[in-house]
Amino acid sequence: MVLVLPFENRSGQPNLNWIADSFPDTLNQRLDSAGFLTIGRDTRVYSLDHLGLPTDFKPTRATTIRIAQTLDAGFVIVGSFNVQAGGIQVQAQVLDVNQLTLSKPMQESSDLAKLFDVENAIAWKVARDINPKFSVAQQTFLSASNGIKLTSFENYIRGISAPTPQERTKRLHAAVQESPTYTAAQLALGKELYADREFDEAAAVLSKVPKSDRVALEANFYLGLARFNNAKYSEAEAAFAFVASRLPLPEVVNDQAVAQSRQGHDGTPLFQRASSTDPNDSDYHYNLAVSYFRHGDFPNAQHELDLTLKLKPNDTEAAELKPLIAAARPPSKTGPGSDLATRIRRTYSEAGFRQATFELDQVRAMRIETLPPARQGTEYTLLGREYLAQGLLPEAEEDFNSAIHADPSSAQGHAGLAQVREQSGDAAAARTEAEASIRLAPNVNAYLILARIDLQQEKVPAAAVDVQNALRLEPTNPAALGMKQAVQSRSQTAP
Predict the structure, then answer these.
(1) What's this model's pTM, rounded to 2 decimal places?
(2) Cα within 13 Å of Cα(92), Cβ side
């Protein structure tokens, strides 16, 4: 696990303190994409508060080690920055907690307007320092923040660290308005609106997060809660079901079951899943007891209620349910037990979700490693294309590299890597990879990448040949037909 602490502001300008807080945000995203498990802001702030340390403290080496040990971090990233004459200079170091060694300083500098490039470059150097075999290109990291305006980023960072709800909401609204597809800001704003009990507004914001985005699971968890609090149980169930289908943690499965039961449906199977996954949680046993009771299964209801009271002897609701079960009579609409309600989980465990997602990725990687080389190449290529669809270039590049490493004859692996290079702005490298892909096995993806590059470089005849080659392989391919029209249009306007 990796802990990134806020960088020290050595500029003497307090109005730039937001930059100090921005480094953990950017480095966490990039290091997550590099396969590390980072410690999120909420966990870090909670730990500092638990240790009696302010969030803006300047850690000594001893204090840093103490924080790392508290959070079970193997590496800690510390650093500082200075701003002079419109430029920013950054220095970072990696503390290996187990070896008690500090890396040599890693430095970057640029215009302040290129803060993203500086932070992404530092993140790439940190990844390489922790794992010298890390193979993702620096240019891929540099392009990972494309589409986000720096002013939106500033408002987002100021928003998540603002001391009052009003300031947080104001800043996050500004971030989303200026960059409408900034999903991290949408999530933060949705959570803030939910905390303010503005459930309709929260749902409207959270529902805009694409389901393919990296923050979609957390966004849909809070979307489900917002819908639930407005008694829109069917929509709440759908949101929880989406999260559970990808990350079936007990709290998510439980909430899906609660939303089902509020619609008069039988949530017993889901309550059973939640309880069996975490048998030490009294609420899950209570919900299962209520569900059994409602459906007339009194022996199982009694068993689950006994487990509830064993775990939580002072549970007053469970104590009130006990004589009802003993009476062996299901609740009527107006009689005793008619107001029984199953319990929903209203908190999202950031650390738990991060850990579960990381572990699922590790399990998936171990499964792929057991396959024959050619099949490994195919599986990694499919994963890479999923990441490409989400705009996650570092993750995509790593999977395409893994595909090529497992199966050097993987034409689609090279084609995927060519697309990463194209999207990160390295046309020469993209052309090299596309041509390597075609040499292995002519394919539409590689030819279309060459066509786009040739068209961008005003090589219209060459682009036309690329498209012809693609259509020769797949005459009805929609992307190839669309590119054909683009080439024809450019031919007509060419001098």
Answers:
(1) 0.82
(2) 29
